[in-house]
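Quick one, probably user error.
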C-alpha cells in the first residue's frame, strides 16, 4: 500500500496520496509508552 500511494503521488501530485504514504510509514507507539512519559513529567513538577 505504501509503495502504491507513493507511485500514485509521484505520477499525479495528489496531496491525499502523499498523506496516505506518510501515514502508513509511521509506526504507532503503544499508548503505555506515552502514558509513562507523561507520568514521569508530572512527577518532576510536583
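Nope, works fine. Designed sequence:
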Amino acid at each position: 500500500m505504501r509503495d502504491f500511494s507513493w507511485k500514485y503521488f509521484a505520477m499525479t501530485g495528489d496531496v491525499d496520496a502523499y498523506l496516505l504514504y506518510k501515514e502508513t510509514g509511521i509506526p504507532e507507539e503503544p499508548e503505555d509508552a506515552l502514558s509513562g512519559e507523561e507520568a514521569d513529567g508530572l512527577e518532576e513538577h510536583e
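Helices lie at 2-12, 15-25, 31-45.
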